Amino acid sequence: MNLHYSKADIHIHTTYSDGIAGVATILEHVAMHTDLRQIAITDHDTIAGALLARQIARAYGVEVIVGEEVSTAEGHLLALFIDHWLPPGRPAAETIAAVHAQGGLCIAAHAFDPLVPSLGRAGLSGRCAGARAGEWPLDGVESFNASSWIAACNRRADTFGAALRLARCGGSDSHSLATVGCGYTLFPGTSADDLYRAIVCGQTAPGGVRWRFEDYLEIAAYRAQGRWQRWRGRVAPPVEAPVLAEVPSQLV
Questions:
Q1: Other CB atoms closer than 10 Å to residue 94's CB: what's the count?
Q2: Which of 29, 94, 172, 195 is the most exposed, fewest CB within 10 Å of its CB?
Q3: ∠ CA(24), CA(80), CA(19), 5° rounding?
């Protein structure tokens, strides 16, 4: 039997954290300019944007997975398929348990990148013993992160994931429209439910291309203008305002 394989970008940021593009803008871009039909919105330490995206995604023909890039005490963790917000600053083990308690999945973000807060910098190799095993019982590892400046970090993460039979996933870590879909997770099936099962069973594969130099410059210029101060203060905008401001008029 021939299986259909799909691509999902499981690591996307919006203006609800430090991304440049709003929720509706990202959904429209995905629908019109990519072959993705499953994406995860994973803003830093908030799920407000992801919940909004899930609310309006059907109008764009896109399926949204609610996620959060949680700033644990030891590094960043991608929490996928969640419904409830996870507070930052708690130990990774406690956060992982909280994700699993609500039926979500845990992926080590940019797992061995020394330039960002990664679990690899805090002893990931000794604390994860495999899928749902060890002090940090992860479900998968982001073995391709398109934003990683050091290519060897992705290779190390991929080798680590394969050795422990963790789901090896890919994500764009997108902060702008230009990078959405640069990294992706390949999985058998056509739905978010299929992606969930594939991660649990370790049947995923990472893929994609790294950001261009211009993509880093775009983010740097955006931040230099001071428009990210809202995120730095950890003040999330109300859900109601972006719904009215971002949803096309024919959908309101």
A1: 13
A2: 94
A3: 40
Q: pLDDT tens-digit profile of 144-167?
A: 999 999 999 999 999 999 999 999
Q: What angle, rounded to 10 degrees, do the helices at 48-56 and 23-33 form?
A: 50
- Cα dist from 25 to 15, 33, 66, whole Å: 10, 12, 17
- Domain residue limits, the chain: 5-251
Q: Which residues contact 157 (CB under 8 A, 6 or more apart)?
A: 108, 110, 111, 112, 120, 141, 142, 143, 144, 145
Report pLDDT digits (tens) over 105-155: 999 999 999 999 999 999 999 999 999 999 999 999 999 999 999 999 999
pTM of the full structure: 0.88
Using DSSP's 3-state secondary structure scheme, residue 173 falls into coil
Class of domain 5-251: alpha beta
Identify residue 237 by its one-letter amino acid code: P
